[in-house]
Write a structure and sequence with these properties.
Length: 196
């Protein structure tokens, strides 16, 4: 009888300790990632447009409504790209692509996988193209995400993350629409997250 009571007491202490540790993390998480941007470069114009792939910095802020449901805002600084037509450089542009995602975090021992879906807004700026050629400065599109947080220490996580973001812009020449250029990048990132 005493052994049973001791076992129950020990189980209660361990479970309450785990619950307190989970609560102590707090609802906020901030991650910093190094991300490789790989553009799909799907162009419906006759120009054969492409932009370069590149590595970019990324910061996100996540708020957990409970242990499974969270919202994540992904931010970076304006990124400069070279725009090419038929392989030849014709100009440059910058894009700023903040993205807001709703996430579901799965319960798993030892690591925390998640999936997300949301909306991307991209603002094109510093557009430097040949005379008469222009692009729409704003893009709205869906974004999809899968990732995992791996605990390293108290409140500190190693993060792996993959996103597909749908970014497009209409291309015009002399005021006439030539077609739509879809960047639609895949972003593969690795970084660290801090839960508080």
């Amino acid at each position: 009888m005493k052994k049973n009571l001791l076992a129950v007491a020990a189980l209660c202490v361990l479970s309450s300790g785990a619950a307190l540790a989970q609560q102590a993390e707090g609802p906020w998480m901030v991650r910093a990632r190094a991300v490789h941007l790989d553009s799909a470069n799907n162009d419906s114009t006759p120009l054969g447009l492409t932009v370069n792939n590149k590595a970019i910095p990324e910061v996100d802020i996540t708020y957990f409504f409970n242990k499974n449901i969270a919202a994540e805002l992904i931010l970076t600084v304006p990124q400069k790209h070279t725009l090419r037509a038929g392989g030849a450089a014709i100009g440059t542009l910058k894009h700023l692509p903040p993205t807001l995602l709703a996430q579901y975090h799965f319960d798993a021992p030892g690591f925390k996988p998640y999936v997300g879906a949301g909306l991307n807004y991209t603002r094109f700026s510093s557009v430097n193209l040949p005379a008469g050629v222009d692009i729409d400065r704003n893009s709205f599109g869906p974004a999809l995400q899968v990732g995992v947080d791996i605990p390293l220490a108290k409140n500190l996580y190693l993060n792996f993350d993959v996103k597909k973001v749908f970014i497009k812009t209409d291309v015009t020449a002399g005021g006439a629409k030539l077609g739509t250029f879809k960047v639609d990048p895949v972003l593969v990132g690795v970084g660290l997250g801090w839960r508080f």
